Amino acid sequence: MLRAWTSALLSVSKNGTRLVASASRIQRVSARGMASATSSSLEEIGELHVTKGLGRLVTGMMVDGDGSYVTMDDGRHYLDFTCGIGVTGLGHCHPKVSKAAADQCLSIVHSQCSIAFHKPYLELIQRLLPIMPHKSLDSFFFWNSGSEAVEAALKMARIITGKQNIISMQGAYHGRTFGAMAVTKSKTIYSEGVHPLMPGVFTTPFPYWHHANVGPETPTKKLTEDALYQLDLLLSQQTAPENTAAIIVEPVIGEGGYVPAPVEFLQGLRAICDKHDILLIVDEVQSGFGRTSGRGKKDGFFAIQESGVRPDILVIAKGLANGFPLSGVVSRKELTDKLKPGSMGGTYAGNAVSCAAAVAVVDAMQEENVLENVKARSKQLFDFLSGLRATPAYAPFILDVRGRGLMVAMEFASSTASAHDIARKREVPAKLASKIATRCIERGMLLLTTSVYETIRFIPPLNISEEDMNKGCEIFEQALKDVVTAY
Ligand SMILES: Cc1ncc(COP(=O)(O)O)c(C=O)c1O
């Protein structure tokens, strides 16, 4: 079975072009379409036996992914502007990544990280060292998911500093496991019914106009000063620096609304951490791996690079292995040398197939100039969304367009927001963002919302073509028009 799967992958990649792969996929998909009776009985199993705790964007089974597109068992074909929530940056089933994984499957799949090194693990470190956002980041630990890597980062921070408390940002998302959930502050759904959470966690404001209940035109400088002042207060009123191990921040808050942290804010956090001997944990699970590239000289694979700030601990996942489960915690050897052997680990941590895929991801990103494409497509998307914002028919509904690279959001006005929210607009339709996302899906594009506000997030593949970006923009404008006109 395994060999059949891998040889299928190999034949796709050996055939060379994506076109050939696509043709064979189309045949497979239509064959699956004929077996729709089986599909519907499987779906019934899903309805009956998959936990209700899991939400789902679309009905049916996804059976095929090729570049910027996915296909469902009934033949629905979608342009994928979700990338499986910011994961498949190189598109679905990138031939080089799939081939690297398939080849690895035929040599060794599981060489447990506490039993012995394996080659892809070390090759991956070799590839990552030169692209780290700071040269001090030279000590790696790989795990499976972003949440696990956050857990590892929190644990490391406590062990290394001998201090307990952690400060996270209002609106932050770091995952659903226990420690990660405790530092997650984007929506109550993630911890509802689960309290008490891990103790020793404090929240500080993130410089986002909507949280501050001021208008989107509020100067960044003012938002930044206010947020840093509140952090100073937190350190003198609630958690003493002597008890504070780490501050954890996403350089672009994801589940909190795709809000980039101002450069001055990140620099301010670094200064506060230096002053008080607190570690700065930078969570680039979503913003990393080229997702936010495209802003100037210091630009690279990570959002933090724009600020020049040195993370003490960097957390990576998602785009790292383009869909294979892999995350990483990167720090300085000088710090990680304080960990006792055996204190870190995990049965599947740093799996060989995932590491081999990640090596291929880094190579493909460089060989195919993906960061250049991010820059060009980002401009294309921003120009388009800014154009919509300036269009009189749409302007009254749109509050903000923001983001970095291809991690971009449009925030809409809300009629159902808190009565105390100064941005509330009673005259707009309720649930604008989810209505528009639903309309996009009906028109053939997968798109997600984010945050407690009416926000649409655009996370297309990093190597998306200009033509497909245009197509996505057209679908979005049509969906927006449908929803606004219907109102
Ligand atoms: C910034 C950030 N951190 C951590 C996580 C958790 O990652 P995972 O879902 O792989 O556990 C996510 C997931 O969306 C994320 O966006």
Automatic annotation (TrEMBL):
**Swiss-Prot/TrEMBL keywords:** Aminotransferase, Pyridoxal phosphate, Transferase
UniProt-listed CDD domains? OAT_like
Report the protein name in the record: Acetylornithine aminotransferase
Q: Which family does it belong to?
A: Belongs to the class-III pyridoxal-phosphate-dependent aminotransferase family.
The keyword Transferase belongs to this UniProt entry's keyword annotation: yes
Q: Do you know which InterPro entries this protein is assigned to?
A: Aminotrans_3, Class-III_PLP-dep_AT, PyrdxlP-dep_Trfase, PyrdxlP-dep_Trfase_major, PyrdxlP-dep_Trfase_small
Q: Identify the cofactor(s).
A: pyridoxal 5'-phosphate
